[in-house]
Amino acid sequence: MAKSPDTICALASASGRAGVAVIRVSGPAAGTALRALGGPLPPPRHASLRKLKDPKSGNLLDRGLVLWLPGPGSFTGEDMGELHIHGSRAVVGLVIAALLSVDHMRLAQPGEFARRAFENGRLDLTEVEGLADLIAAETEAQARQALAQSEGGARALYEGWREDLVKAQALAEAGLDFADEADVAADAGAKADAIVATLLEGISHHLADRRGEVLRDGFRVVIAGPPNVGKSSLLNALARRDVAIVSEEAGTTRDVIEVHLDLRGLPVIVIDTAGLREASGAVEAEGVRRALARVGEADLVLWLIDATAAEPAAMPAFAAAAVPVVNKIDVAPAPPIPDGHAISAKTGQGMSELVGLLADRAEAALAAGEPAVVTRARHRTELEAAAEALHRYQRVRAGPEFKAEELRIAARHLGRLTGRIDVEEVLGAIFSEFCIGK
Ligand SMILES: Nc1nc2c(ncn2[C@@H]2O[C@H](COP(=O)(O)OP(=O)(O)OP(=O)(O)O)[C@@H](O)[C@H]2O)c(=O)[nH]1
Ligand SMILES: [Mg+2]
Description:
Blueprint: E1 7-11, E2 18-26, H1 30-38, E3 48-53, E4 60-69, E5 80-87, H2 89-100, E6 105-107, H3 112-119, H4 125-136, H5 140-150, H6 153-177, H7 182-207, H8 211-217, E7 219-224, H9 231-239, E8 257-263, E9 266-272, H10 282-297, E10 300-306, E11 323-327, E12 341-342, H11 351-366, H12 377-395, H13 400-418, H14 424-431
Parallel strand pairs: 1-6, 7-9, 7-10, 10-11, 11-12
Antiparallel strand pairs: 1-2, 2-5, 3-4, 4-5, 8-9
Helix pairs in contact: 4-5, 6-7, 6-13, 7-12, 12-13
Bound molecules: guanosine-5'-triphosphate and magnesium ion.
Guanosine-5'-triphosphate binds next to helix 9.
């Protein structure tokens, strides 16, 4: 792809007060800009301490490290520079203003460095996504998965599959060319069939693995139950802070409130919901509707039961798969409930066991084995479409040209995954994830 004429610069570290801030520059004028502020270019990829001056006035702006990272071996593939300066808003503002006074320099759009890395073939789409996830990672397991993906874990697999498909396609087309020589055609067809069978096995194996998406989004635990049983109190106890309003009034919670926990390095999102009952008003009814929607998306539901209630509320059908948790055992003994957990959100009794249970469930769903490859709905959609085309290939009886067409369709979906083709429709969404500090 042609080099972009603009040179871009931006603060790469989080904005605000910090010991050090990093400003990145990329594009054909990167070297000129570094020289304009910091004097002669340091040797490539060696940090050099420089006085940074305003090119117009000659005023000293700061003293900092200058890095010269010439293309094409740089992150973006273009000539790049980095300035490590003091991290105050004032210094960062002055240095960026000085950079912008250099010809052909402008501020980068969110994600533009990654976009250039992609356009210059330094990263494929899955690696860009992995990088966005790595920047957003909140727990160790998320960071590990994102790093594996940003280092090409998914790319290698998907590219390998695409190459196999191209081979199968060539074989299927050979069947067309040698239609008169039945032996040759049959042999090529059988080889293509074998490649497709192996491919389908591989794709199905990875589609069956949902760990990647759950790990990226967080393991979702929904606290549900009748009003006033202590759902919000349990959320606060898990969060160890007052996140949700607690009161003896039934129907207190209406909005859905989420808390992000890190349990053994795994991201667990605990969600408090409105008490489920025949709502007494439109706002509460909306709360109940939202509660039920969250239950539907949950990886685990905790069904809360009030130990002090004369008669526990009947469990709705969805709660059959839920973990029953009896609360308020500081006031009344827990009724015997099979596989139930007994806690007091107020005194903390039974809470460490409950946290242990959440961590175990999250671990069972997420951990174990190699990092997952399918980490986003986008991957799943394309892989499913590719697998469908391969299934149709296996069912085609009409003739080799129809088989070859299904292989082309499957290859197109794998090409979309890595960003070889049809990238424009997904690019905007992915690169906007690089908006630092959002
Ligand atoms: N003694 C005792 N009281 C509790 C405990 N947990 C909650 N409560 C009390 O029960 C009442 C209801 O608590 P909430 O946490 O607001 O209950 P909720 O299920 O979120 O209620 P809604 O949002 O109205 O559905 C409050 O007065 C709490 O102080 C507990 O473990 N022991
Ligand atoms: Mg509540």
